[in-house]
Design a protein that fits this description.
Leucine-rich repeat, LRR (right-handed beta-alpha superhelix), alpha/beta, five-stranded parallel β-sheet, single chain, repeat, globular, CCR4-NOT transcription complex subunit 6-like, about 160 residues, leucine-rich repeat, 4 helices
């Protein structure tokens, strides 16, 4: 028995669908002002509307199946904490470096082999989680030193090419 095209894209588990705001509220210009948002549970895709929540100060996207983070994450300029741990990320957008107020960036347990040099612009970053990634020995050696986060970010900034 084959499924028709429409069924393929319909959500078979309505409990897994959550609406941030009704269509009527969104169309009327109503805004949401939650300071923190947690989206976990094997999510593979994120709504483009997420990147419009520029007031967020904390975003927890850990324990999902995300393979990429779009460059639009750079719009979330007020973020102080970002947890992308336990996903399937192989790369990160350079726009993460635009999140200049970020104090905590957790990237543990992904498939990251490299980090964007733009992370060196995160001068307020205090906590950086990189465990469980196949990063180069050079990066992990810097990270493992005392004051490793600071040394790694300085290295990234030094290697950032100015265009």
């Amino acid at each position: 028995m084959s499924r028709n095209h429409k069924d393929k894209y319909e959500n078979s588990n309505p409990r897994r669908t959550h609406t941030f705001m009704s269509t009527e509220d969104a169309n009327s210009g109503k805004k949401s002002y939650w300071p923190e948002l947690e989206i976990t549970g094997s999510i593979r895709n994120l709504s483009p509307n997420l990147w419009q929540l520029t007031h967020l100060t904390a975003l927890y996207l850990n324990d999902n199946s995300l393979q990429r983070i779009p460059s639009e994450i750079g719009r979330l300029v007020n973020l102080r904490a970002l947890d992308l741990s336990s996903n399937k990320l192989r790369s990160l957008p350079a726009e993460l470096g635009d999140l200049i107020y970020l104090r905590e960036l957790l990237l543990n347990q992904n498939y990251l082999r490299v980090l964007p040099y733009e992370l060196g612009k995160l001068f307020q970053l205090q906590v950086l989680g990189l465990q469980g990634n196949p990063l180069s020995k050079e990066i992990m050696a810097l990270y493992g030193e005392p004051s490793g986060t600071h040394k790694l970010l300085s290295y990234m900034l030094d290697n950032l090419q100015v265009l």
